[in-house]
């Protein structure tokens, strides 16, 4: 698993940092086998899956984000990953036509 830290850019933008965070969060899901062992495990409750997501994946995705000055395209990239993960926790697809507000309500999460 990659180490956390900040990616500095001479252009003073967050593109490299956002990409690094998205990659690290995705790697954490695959390397720790969270997708198979936790998120698709029918023996675990939805509440447990959400707690694991909040404890393991979100800190990797959002580490240091308090200091970021994000643009709308940066937020959309982070929200896209978050939305995909939250839908995965519920076992729904975007084709199921659930609004994100209803998904957030079910999982007791919110848009980041």
The total tally of domains equals 1
**What is the chain-wise order of helices and strands?**
HHHHH
What is the helical fraction, as a range of percent? 55-70%
Alpha plus pi helix count:
5
Q: How far apart, in Å, are the first and last alpha carbons? A: 23 Å
- Shape from CA axes? globular
Describe it for me?
The protein has 112 residues and is an all-alpha fold. The protein has one domain (15-107). It is built from five helices and no strands. It has helices at residues 15-31, 34-39, 46-62, 72-90, 100-107. Helix 1 runs antiparallel to helix 3 and helix 3 runs antiparallel to helix 4. The model has no long low-confidence stretch (mean pLDDT 83).
Please tag this protein with its features.
mainly alpha
Short note summarizing the structure:
60% of the residues lie in helices and 0% in strands.
Secondary-structure map:
Layout: H1 15-31, H2 34-39, H3 46-62, H4 72-90, H5 100-107
Helix pairs in contact: 1-3, 3-4, 4-5
């Amino acid at each position: 698993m990659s180490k956390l830290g900040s990616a500095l850019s001479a252009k003073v933008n967050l593109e490299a940092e956002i990409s690094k965070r998205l990659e690290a969060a995705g790697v954490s899901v695959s390397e720790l086998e969270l997708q198979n062992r936790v998120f698709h495990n029918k023996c675990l409750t939805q509440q447990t899956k959400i707690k694991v997501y909040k404890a393991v994946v979100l800190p990797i995705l959002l580490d240091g984000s308090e200091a970021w000055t994000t643009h709308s395209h940066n937020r959309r990239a982070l929200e896209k990953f978050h939305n995909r993960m939250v839908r995965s926790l519920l076992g729904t697809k975007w084709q199921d036509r659930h609004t994100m507000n209803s998904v957030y309500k079910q999982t007791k999460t919110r848009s980041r």
